[in-house]
Amino acid sequence: MGWAVALAASCSCPLPEVCRGQSKIRVDGPRGNALQYETVQVVDPGPVLRDMAFSKDHEQLYIMSERQLTRVPVESCGQYRSCGECLGSGDPHCGWCVLHNTCTRKERCERSREPRRFASEMKQCVRLTVHPNNISVSQYNVLLVLETYNVPELSAGVNCTFEDLSEMDGLVVGNQIQCYSPAAKEVPRIITENGDHHVVQLQLKSKETGMTFASTSFVFYNCSVHNSCLSCVESPYRCHWCKYRHVCTHDPKTCSFQEGRVKLPEDCPQLLRVDKILVPVEVIKPITLKAKNLPQPQSGQRGYECILNIQGSEQRVPALRFNSSSVQCQNTSYSYEGMEINNLPVELTVVWNGHFNIDNPAQNKVYLYKCGAMRESCGLCLKADPDFECGWCQSPGQCTLRQHCPAHESRWLELSGANSKCTNPRITEIIPVTGPREGGTKVTIRGENLGLEFRDIASHVKVAGVECSPLVDGYIPAEQIVCEMGEAKPSQHAGFVEICVAVCRPEFMARSSQLYYFMTLTLSDLKPSRGPMSGGTQVTITGTNLNAGSDVVVMFGKQPCLFHRRSPSYIICNTTSSEEVLEMEVTVQVDRAKIRRDLVFQYVEDPTIVRIEPEWSIVSGNTPIAVWGTHLDLIQNPQIRAKHGGKEHINICEVLNATEMTCQAPALALGPDHQSDLTERPEEFGFILDNVQSLLILNKTNFTYYPNPVFEAFGPSGILELKPGTPIILKGKNLIPPVAGGNVKLNYTVLVGEKPCTVTVSDVQLLCESPNLIGRHKVMARVGGMEYSPGMVYIAPDSPLSLPAIVSIAVAGGLLIIFIVAVLIAYKRKSRESDLTLKRLQMQMDNLESRVALECKEAFAELQTDIHELTSDLDGAGIPFLDYRTYTMRVLFPGIEDHPVLRDLEVPGYRQERVEKGLKLFAQLINNKVFLLSFIRTLESQRSFSMRDRGNVASLIMTVLQSKLEYATDVLKQLLADLIDKNLESKNHPKLLLRRTESVAEKMLTNWFTFLLYKFLKECAGEPLFSLFCAIKQQMEKGPIDAITGEARYSLSEDKLIRQQIEYRTLVLSCVSPDNANSPEVPVKILNCDTITQVKEKILDAIFKNVPCSHRPKAADMDLEWRQGSGARMILQDEDITTKIENDWKRLNTLAHYQVPDGSVVALVSKQVTAYNAVNNSTVSRTSASKYENMIRYTGSPDSLRSRTPMITPDLESGVKMWHLVKNHEHGDQKEGDRGSKMVSEIYLTRLLATKGTLQKFVDDLFETIFSTAHRGSALPLAIKYMFDFLDEQADRHGIHDPHVRHTWKSNCLPLRFWVNMIKNPQFVFDIHKNSITDACLSVVAQTFMDSCSTSEHRLGKDSPSNKLLYAKDIPSYKNWVERYYSDIGKMPAISDQDMNAYLAEQSRLHMSEFNTMSALSEIFSYVGKYSEEILGPLDHDDQCGKQKLAYKLEQVITLMSLDS
């Protein structure tokens, strides 16, 4: 089958975020159309260039942007997880490899040419049905028949798996597979809360590949969770109800016809729907209920009862079953608390035999009621529901049942009675009490007994002598009448409200106590008299009696003005929008009275905003903003708004004139976890100007929010002590916003006590000229919408001395002078010898002083040296990355050069077949998660299983699982989750988690990152790490390095610092290349104090600048030949017959020793056997030379992980000690004059500072690259985001919300576990040689890196170690980087398991054959041999292991692998 595919890159487009993609288009898509089936983001940032090229095998495509070259696979089939997804993707490269359950190219699928093993069309996907597809949980070992479609031949066998419940062999019969359902102990438990069924995936697993290739849903159901007949028989499963036993079962045999088997809902015992069951309280009354199918209690069973749940307490009442269709709760009275409820619905349940419920599908309730509750008047009583049968008993004046009203003493009124009218109506309130004469006012009359029907009051209401027509809508029987006023005559001014109920007899008439008044309403003015066309202006119309009447309508011409509120003297309304600019006449209508006056409102064009300045503020807002526009004076209450993250903040503006106003910037709504140092843009920014919609969002502004200023407190005590006149300095950050192209400052106010002070602002501090105050005062800084107090300032007064104090000081001074004279006379009489000692001491002090001064001067000069010298040297050198295999081996198995996993398995020929078979079986076990977890846990519980063993097992497992990283990641997550549980259970501090490598999980985590971050190292972090290494090496070699102690003039480590003044000069030697004598001579910078070996190494570095270390000649194999002008040649060596020996100290030869001048010609030649100036053959020299050579090898070995100084032990035979630049101070043979060197040695620590200053840029670059989520051409590795999210999930699961603990977990997981290792050991990543001084400096950088990731405060003092003090100022900013990095990662969208698995599958594919899996398995198996009994034990006892017969399989492996088999 052929197909055509176009791979197109989007090269130029208006939207930059879609410019970085590559589209895959199938040209011969369905129905002849082109079909785009995938879009891949390729480069970042910038557009893709036109030039694209295939790799040789046509499986990769190279794509370029202006800054980046990216390799993209032509297909990424591995991202699809199901057959439907794979074949539905439209990618013609992809098909479904059935038995491997994976989406891949056809040529990568084993035996894909055989029928049905490779599906390339949707209809060829495997389908599966099962019969039966559900069984009860009490049925075991049921035969299930699975019909399969599109399944290849399964001669290797197939397993049926019920998720993690059980696994068993399946029997293949044609296209059917027969399996048995799980045994009793493996069936899932179903509890009532989870419903009556449990769905599991029934999966088919190929024995050939060990992979699941088909699955379908299978249901286990449980009838017994149903405890009512209706829910039982209405279940979708085969459930039956036993009426007499009151149980639900799947098996009809266990429920005979005699036991009342029910299959249909209509045959269930149940109560039928009845009308409201009303029961008055405290009245003895039975409750009769209709029902059907009520069972007759059998012998030994109890009868019926009714259960009423009244206000939380249960009342049980005996009940009588008349027949199968009727039951009656016996005569009983009921009651409930309180008079606030007049009827209370109560749950009613009918039970028999104590607890067998009768279904109540209609949910019938009993209503208990009290006539007297909330019915205090006759009208309220008679208006109650007639079914309650309540009436008004006149003598006590209360609402009761008839039987509770004494008949002979009083009348009892009821609604249906002949005289059902309540007497004595009463008016309690009228609203309003004033209105216009023209009428139309709606008057509300409230009171008691105001009739029970509308016709009772329809024609008998007068207000102040004027007819008032009652309105049906406003009438509430007995309680309220609303009527509309007629017109009043001019002679009528005020009067009472009078009503008759039905008839105008005295007992049915009422009169109000309030008077109603007729008013004349007038208008006088309106403000403002103009407003914007969009409306929203709040207009106030003044006048008299404007609160009279009920309804107000205000019109401006034809435009309504929406009524807001009013008082006797004003009406306030809000204008609506107008279509045009014009003047409108104002009219006010109150009820039927129309009030006019010559008042005019003018609609004007809407305001506009032309410009705002400045276009920035700080997050807390409240900085001034000047706004220019038009018609701004129309707006009464202008506001400014900003919306961010869905939350809106508003602030006020003040109008200055028609074209200007000033506003206070609104604050920005930011969440509590917001990064404080980020610049933000609001989603919406604009103005609220009445109803002007067009300015709510300003489109043309780029309003920006900068971070709030942050101040530091005045030290831990919070008190700053000052002398009068001394300025107060407030330190902080973000004090000046970083606004582009402007010298902008915020307006700071600093108060000392109540007094303001003059402020000078810089980016990191405020200088405040302290006001003329003394004593203790609080300091308060204000800016924008925030204020902060850094603490108190204490200004000590200048105390002038009093006269007695001056006299006493003078007396004391006189006595002191007399005492000094006496001492001097006594001293003068001392012996001459003491005088000489003093002179000698004085000379020493002068000497010491001059040395200190000289060193300080030099240190200062070094700090000023330009860093360009270093950076220019580093440019152009290629980076010698190790290949993936060497890199992983150095991290996983440090110090082991030729590890077995790199070689083929070595076994005798006669055992080879058995061993390979055993290891294949063992590989299947290792790929079984249950086995692997059990294996690791068992090993870790053995006391003899050492730390080294743990690391070794973790590394071996990861090499085996290199090709199955998805599975490795799953196992790692499980092990880490267990480790976290264990850590928290053992009450260890959560911060100690992952701190050290004490478990297999921790080493596996290191290895996991090692595998997945290689690409990131090569593309991104490797460059700054290599630059730092080169910069350290070059900086160290600029000054003397002691060849024996490893100490250097330039160092970051105090332990490796030469604390003496070494005289030296820089020479430039011309060196002849050892490879080609005719090539031009190479100039090499050398120091005249360098040993000959150091000179050789520097020459090799210069000549083989771009050659990896492992491909260069070794210094030890070369001789240095000095070619003098006369044609003479001389071999220079570290030791020869000219070597100087002085007092048992032998000094190594240097260029100064041979007096080699600047500009000399030297050559590296292959090692000579003899030379005329070589060491004579004495024992002394031989032993010393070999000892020295060993030392050199020791200090410089690439695997030295710490800075180690060789001990300088005297030669046992001769007692001679070697030295180069400094003699080791442990040998106490320094001259007396050297005592000063101890005193002055501390001054040389300033050199650490000079070195640190030179290297600062490289350290910053490395840290910034590691702690950044947006890299040069490389996205954040998925592994980091995925693992951090996993740790956050675990913290949430354990309820750990302390941010310090979460931060520490992440630091221990990645920076301290992976990056520190890389910083200390760059030879793991690059092909380089690392000497001891470079190693010591890298250790200081690594320690700084660790401190930056810590959340604990580092308290430093003058006694702290120098490497902590060296970076003390930088660590806080590094810590901010780390916090921002973790926060940015947290905000990134989560990585789906699907994306992560696709990425892991791709990584596995790239490095599938790096290690020999058989050899690695053999190494792991050695631990099985050692602990076989302990490993087999848990496999036998664990249920899951038992189901999968893991112990049996392991025993098979042991048998195959044993020597005597």
TrEMBL record:
This is Plexin-A4. The lineage of its organism: Eukaryota, Metazoa, Chordata, Craniata, Vertebrata. One of its GO terms (biological process) is trigeminal nerve structural organization. The chain crosses the membrane at residues 805-827. GO terms for cellular component: plasma membrane; semaphorin receptor complex. The keyword Transmembrane helix applies. Its main location: membrane. One of its GO terms (molecular function) is semaphorin receptor activity. Keywords: Acetylation, Cell membrane, Coiled coil, Disulfide bond, Glycoprotein, Membrane, Receptor, Repeat, Signal, Transmembrane, Transmembrane helix. Interacts with NRP1 and NRP2. Residues 1-74 form the Sema domain.
